[in-house]
Automatic annotation (TrEMBL):
Binds 1 zinc ion per subunit. Its EC number is 3.6.1.-. InterPro entries: G_CP_dom, NA-bd_OB-fold, P-loop_NTPase, Ribosome_biogen_GTPase_RsgA, RsgA_GTPase_dom. This is Small ribosomal subunit biogenesis GTPase RsgA. It comes from Fulvivirga imtechensis AK7. One of its GO terms (molecular function) is rRNA binding.
């Protein structure tokens, strides 16, 4: 196992030098659970904790290590190390923390490509696909669309879906496969490059685990069934969160990743619908919302049939959701501030009465 096998490259070496981290060992975080980490490198696999300095200088959850991070470490013995710092991330997939509304939770970092997995049977949904694209843009991850279970429909139906995708989504590779017959596997193996890092976004049951197992060459994860039961009587699927595939690609698949997609589209919308982005440069008003403005190039394109109506509707819907999310965060901050003020006055009041 070399660092390169884990995805290390010249770019990272440069970052390591720029950040004066030559004196430390380097490793990649391959799993994280409640601030306990596992870091892997050419010397082995280590349980890890962060230094007090890293903890106290962290302003938010985003400053803590996440799966996929490259970290500067000091190795203490054959299975323990301390994490000093995190190398700057090239990408990060995050979601809103369900517990603490408004707080961002990083799911995985330094991902090059996301496989957007949808099954062609009941699961296929264009809006969800566009939502995944939004997440990719916001996360700085390149998307690859993967359609699974093509063995369940006939060739004609597959072509129809491919056509539908191509009219709505431009410049994103689409691969249709069957995990059952392994049709299309040559194509998916061809897009997975050695040393590049991948993740999968897709609903439950679309075949992500089956695909992962097949690409890794050995079973990493049991599919369709629950693989292990803990002493607490709770069932968990136990598997590695960062897997090196047979052809050298690296695949991150952690539990948090499976929740991504029901998350909010907070940014990158304009880019996802890159057509809309480009069109909006010709809108009469700079702050055009593309809903009812005179001289709106987007509305014009819809009317002329140059822009798909459903795409436009979906764009408006996502914009509304985004506005809603942003206003709830702002409202929460305002509430917190008001509460703080109230507590201050209350305390003043009490002191006065003393
Ligand atoms: N016919 C057919 N069945 C498939 C295909 N891929 C997966 N399946 C089946 O679909 C079921 C779900 O597959 P999984 O690989 O567990 O799906 P998953 O996306 O990992 O699901 P979660 O673990 O719930 O997120 C299993 O019974 C698989 O055997 C396929 O290409 N064709
Ligand atoms: Zn407009």
């Amino acid at each position: 196992m070399t660092l390169e096998d884990l995805g290390y490259n010249d770019q990272l070496e440069k970052l390591r030098n720029e950040n004066n981290l030559k004196a430390f060992d380097i490793g990649r975080v391959i799993s994280e659970h409640k601030e306990r980490y596992v870091v892997k490198n050419d010397k082995g696999e280590f349980e890890a904790e962060i230094t007090g300095h890293l903890r106290f200088s962290s302003k938010s959850r985003e400053d803590f290590p996440a799966v996929g991070d490259w970290v500067a470490i000091t190795i203490y013995d054959s299975d323990f190390c301390i994490i000093h710092s995190i190398l700057p991330r090239s990408s990060a997939i995050s979601r809103q923390d369900v517990g603490k509304f408004g707080e961002i939770q990083i799911i995985a970092t330094n991902i090059d490509y996301a496989l957007l997995v949808q099954a062609v049977d009941r699961d296929f949904n264009m809006n969800r696909l566009e939502r995944y694209l939004t997440i990719c843009n916001a996360s700085k991850v390149d998307p690859i669309i993967v359609l699974t279970k093509i063995d369940l429909i006939d060739e004609h139906q597959t072509l129809e879906i491919l056509e539908k995708i191509k009219t709505r989504i431009k410049n994103v590779p689409v691969i249709a496969i069957s995990n059952e017959s392994q049709d299309g596997y040559d194509k998916i193996k061809a897009v997975i490059e050695k040393g590049k890092t991948y993740c999968m976004l897709g609903s439950s049951g679309v075949g992500k685990s089956t695909l992962l197992n097949n690409l890794s060459g050995k079973p990493v994860m049991q599919t369709g069934t629950i693989s292990q039961s803990t002493k607490k009587g709770k069932h968990v699927t136990s598997h590695r969160e960062l897997v090196i595939l047979e052809n050298g690609g690296i695949l991150i698949d952690n539990p948090g990743m499976r929740e991504v997609g029901i998350a909010d589209p907070t940014s990158g919308l304009e880019m996802t619908f890159d057509v809309i982005g480009r069109l909006s440069q010709n809108c009469k008003f700079k702050d055009c919302t593309h809903t009812n403005e005179i001289g709106c190039a987007v509305i014009e394109a819809v009317e002329k049939g140059e822009l798909d109506h459903a795409s436009y509707e979906n764009y408006l819907k996502l914009e509304r959701e985004k506005a809603h999310f942003e206003s709830s965060v702002a409202e929460r901050r305002k509430r917190d501030k008001e509460f703080g003020k109230m507590m201050k006055n209350y305390k003043k009041d009490i002191n006065r009465k003393k």
